[in-house]
Amino acid sequence: MPTPPARGRFAGSRARKVSSDPALADARAAGTGRDAELVVITGLSGSGKGSVLRALEDLGYYSVDNLPVDLIPKFAELTHQSPAIRGAALVVDVREGAGLRRFPEILDKIRKKINAKLVFMEADDEAIRRRFSETRRPHPLGRERSISKSIRFERSQLAAIRAKADLIINTSKFTVHELREFIGERFGGDGSHSNIMIYVTSFGYRNGLPPDSDLVFDVRFLPNPNYIPRFKNLTGRNPSVARYIRSFPQTVEFVQRISDLLIYLLPHYIREGKSYLTIAFGCTGGQHRSVMMAEQMRKNLKDAGYTAKVTHRDIVEARR
Q: Do residues 42 and 111 both lie within one domain?
């Protein structure tokens, strides 16, 4: 999701004034309205900064791309004082050049006066390389070095800024739609607690652990339907197979205990700024027990108000 280059120093199409809200203006005049929030978006090129900026713009934030760092304090002051602006968002990144080194100090001064949040966008190296390859755009640091070297150099340049972030979002697994949904939940003010994307996956140990898993649960202790002829060529998505696995008391207890554990853990992950969580369930071949468990856990998390997707890494599609 590379960020399109700014047109000049300001991306005119990215700056939008929010129409005046009389009720909000009256509330602020009376001292009861909340202060305008400033969201500064930064991070790696290709991590989705532009998508986040557009999502915030759609939420009513006054949005500017690639504002020179020396103008940020004045911009923050003006938007803070305007009763018509509920919040402002801007992007600062390596396009700023040498001036980026002054940004941490500028941010510290702004935070003393204004409610300012720093959102740092990043993604795994492979995801960024793929995005640049798909769009065929050069890296903002130029063509003199390879994309891989530019990514490493950019990470080092942004390390001090990343350390000051209020929210770090790794977009490696996000689609553009999922990222916009996440930002809407995080900044939309709807009070939802489901501002974390949960991926539930099944796998077979014979094919190795999924390398990107955050939590892994081994369900090989459950009775194996593979040894029952009528279930052998089916998967845990089949209702008969799922009923068989759930018929054992250890399955019922395990589902309840893991559901309770996850529902306990998720608010803590959210408070720490984690934007997505991958939960993996493994059995021997990844066809029956782990599949049923992943499907059940996705349902339980959805019932608890969380956004969860399920994938089955090793399932044989011909099976049902």
A: yes
Q: Are residues 38 and 183 in the same domain?
A: yes
**How confident is the model over 137-191, as pLDDT tens digits?**
778 777 777 888 888 989 998 999 999 998 899 988 888 888 888 888 788 754 4
Are 208 and 272 spatial neighbours (Cβ–Cβ below 8 Å)?
Answer: no
CB 269 within 8 A of CB 277: yes
Asked if residues 245 and 236 have their Cβ atoms less than 8 Å apart, the reply is yes
Which residue in 48, 73, 76 sits closest to 62, CA to CA?
76
pTM greater than 0.85: no
Give the per-residue pLDDT at 196. 79
Position 219: which residue type? Answer: V
| 67, 100: one domain | yes
Q: Which domain holds residue 26?
A: 12-187
Q: Considering its fold, how many domains does the chain have in total?
A: 2
- Which residues contact residue 185 at a Cβ distance below 8 angstroms, ignoring those fewer than 6 apart? 192, 194, 195, 307
Q: Which residue is listed with tokens 């049923």?
A: 292
- Identify the H or E element spanning 79: helix 72-81
The verdict on 146 and 227 lying in the same domain is no
